[in-house]
Design brief:
By secondary structure, the protein is an alpha+beta fold.
């Protein structure tokens, strides 16, 4: 069997024949032109070298399907992964109570099926809280790890190909929890959420929590004003004041390592306001702060390296041996692109943040909305309404397609930057285009801008 990992944690085990079955189903539904090539069957027993070659080919196949805008969001692909996850973890379909945390530590208990997917669970939580359907899309479920001081370390946003109950229970560690938080970056969307009592309460609880954990920076005078608004229970005014504070709406990551401005620097990265903010401790112990705008990242990629020996299968998932890196190519000046690397167990979560910032920018550019409407079908299953389809988040490892128009326009905009093919990257590891997220919100900078 082949182990499929998500974020360095075992998601499911599948056999070659099962993957072949998925491939044939996808071909039947979408045609041979859309579905990538599948590693061929072999008549004779595979040699160890051929086994490894097939493993690599299957990995590339699964990533290629996942990053295809049609196949990656298809019910065929996602239900295959959900079913395989449930079978691997040997959790039968039954009714269970799942505990979902809110930012203020309050627990919401929902009765769900073990086989309920992420969207079903999100809907169940929203329903329990009386959050209106048209506000559900402003929130997401996140897998987090509770730290000793009561704060949270973000593992990932739960995806549509997983079963939240199975994902959290299969980790066999009470430190892993599911939390409900807002999932947009632009604080102007706060107005939509604050229109409704429950939306306002959720946003208020998250803002208070982020201030208490030091994610939002507050000076003494601001702290006094906030306390006074809290005492008056002026939640909207509290949020309005918080919106003016540094790092409002940012997600703070655990301390990690970067190669910018020099190798081996310790850094605290925060994501928000369409940027990655770096607070870097230089070897001289000096602290420097700077930001990388998402609109100046030409592309990025996540790479992982796994040691050959994974240890016993029962080893603690928290002590993951997988080394993850996020690298992005940044337009430092009008004619200079430079790679910046962050080595962090949260690299995939960072990538998801970058992708969702780009999605939001593109939706705004096209005049779209992030409101997601849900409607129930007769069989009780949830289906997205048409209004949501336009802003469906691209799959995790989205690679640039040279034929897409935004990329073509880009080269004419950037006269002084050589835009070589992304696959001919100058980075140390030469990797193919499939490993990259092309950034369609990338904005070239002309002489007049600098």
């Amino acid at each position: 069997a082949y182990n499929i990992h998500v974020n360095g944690v075992l998601h499911c085990r599948v056999r070659y024949s099962q993957l072949l079955g998925l491939h044939e189903q996808l071909r039947k539904e979408y045609g041979t032109n859309v579905v990538p090539a599948f590693p061929p069957k072999k008549i004779f027993t595979l040699t160890p070298a051929e086994v490894e070659q097939r493993r690599e080919q299957l990995e590339k196949y699964m990533q290629a399907v996942r990053q295809d805008p049609t196949l990656g969001v298809s019910e065929t692909f996602n239900s295959f992964l959900r079913k395989a996850q449930q079978e691997t973890q040997q959790i039968p379909t039954e009714e269970v109570v799942l505990e979902v945390l809110l930012s203020n530590g309050q627990k919401v208990k929902v009765t769900i099926l073990t086989s309920d997917q992420t969207e079903d669970v999100l809907e169940a939580v929203a329903s329990k809280l009386d959050l209106p359907d048209d506000l559900v899309g402003y929130f997401s479920l996140f897998l987090v790890r509770e730290t000793k001081d009561g704060a949270f370390s973000f593992v990932r946003k739960l995806q549509e190909f997983e079963l939240p109950y199975v994902s959290v229970t299969s980790l066999h560690n009470p430190e892993f929890r599911i939390i409900l938080r807002k999932s947009y970056w632009d604080s102007s969307y706060d107005d939509d959420v604050m229109e409704h009592r429950v939306g306002l309460n959720l946003l208020y609880a998250q803002t208070v929590s982020d201030i208490e954990h030091g994610w939002i920076l507050v000076n003494k005078e601001q702290h006094r004003q906030l306390k006074s608004l809290q005492e008056k229970v002026s939640k909207k005014e509290f949020i309005r004041l918080a919106q003016t504070l540094k790092y409002y709406g940012y997600l703070k990551f655990d301390p990690c390592v970067t190669d910018f401005p020099e190798k081996g620097c310790h850094v605290v990265v925060s994501a928000g306001n369409n940027e990655l903010n770096f607070q870097v401790r230089l070897p001289s112990e000096q602290i420097k702060e700077g930001s990388f705008k998402v609109t100046r990242m030409r592309c990025w990629r996540v790479t992982s390296s796994v040691p050959m020996s994974n240890g016993p299968s029962g080893s603690s998932p928290g002590k993951s041996e997988v080394k993850l890196e996020l690298a992005f190519e940044y337009l430092m000046s009008k004619d200079r692109l430079q790679w910046v690397t962050i080595t962090s167990p949260q690299a995939i979560m960072l990538s998801i943040c970058l992708q969702s910032m780009v999605d939001e920018l593109m939706v705004k550019k096209s005049g779209g909305s992030i409101r997601k409407m849900f409607r129930r079908r007769a069989n009780g299953a949830l289906r997205r309404s048409d209004s949501q389809q336009a802003v469906k988040s691209p799959p995790l490892l989205d690679s640039p397609d040279a034929s897409r128009e935004p990329m073509a326009k880009l080269s004419s905009k950037l006269t002084s930057v050589s835009l070589r093919g992304i696959s001919h990257s100058s980075s140390a590891n030469d990797v193919g285009t499939n490993d990259f997220h092309g950034n369609y919100a990338f904005e070239g900078i002309g002489d007049e801008d600098l």
